[in-house]
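call fold target=Alpha/beta hydrolase fold family protein
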Amino acid sequence: MTAKKLLISIAASASLAAVLPLAHAEAPITSIQGTIAKPTIVLIHGAFADSSSWDGVAKKLTAHGYPVLSIANPLRGIANDAQYAANAIGAVKGPLVLVGHSYGGMVISKAAEGNPEVKALVYVAAFAPEQGETVAGLAGKFPGGTLGDALADPVTLADGGKDLYIRQDKFAQQFAADVPPRQAALMAVGQRPVTVAALNEVSNGAAWKQLPSYFVYGTADKNIPVEALRFMAKRASAKDVVEVKGASHVLMVSRPDAVAKVIEEAADNK
């Protein structure tokens, strides 16, 4: 699918309602203390997911002594969401590793800028944009993505914007093919919408140019073509690139061990 076709497909699809903002980030976050040995791992989900998608990974990381914070990504626009994340991580003391899934990669690529405590970036089936690039453009740069065909009719918002959802009957096949069916069905019900504007907003952050980056993604990803992920990892001169055979777009749900291992590598790298 070309970038142009993806843009058309995205603008013409999706369903359902609201955004759940992270309630008062500053209060709980200030108690999280990163240490020299164990930096705080900040997890930022992407479109059509929510913060609970990190539960399996967070369980692994906390068991190994890492402080973990999973941020509810608003999914309203790159600049807005990156500022939201930057405010939240600014309240965390000590070193940080930022981890982004899918669209969350756009967010960490900007939110990390100007924060000397961020030591590494981990892209989990995620976009690592150059200045001036968009989600839609990167997703359509190589063939193989089928997201546009899985979207429902868009929901028009009060401000004239449009929210996108994946059709529930296509969610598992498109987004979470290697997740147990019952779990994938619940994920479809609880999916968080992203705006059309967010997917077409130009990025102005590329923190991977200054920070060590790590990539992990599945070879059966249908949202972001594997060749696009390989291209971004190579361009970023990633310190490690892990391809998980047969894993879907939400490999942090289906393969938490593999994802946690890469995050720990990034956190422990000196």
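return ok
The domain at 3-19+36-268 is CATH 3.40.50.1820 (Rossmann fold). Strands lie at 40-44, 68-71, 96-101, 118-124, 155-156, 162-164, 194-195, 213-218, 240-244.
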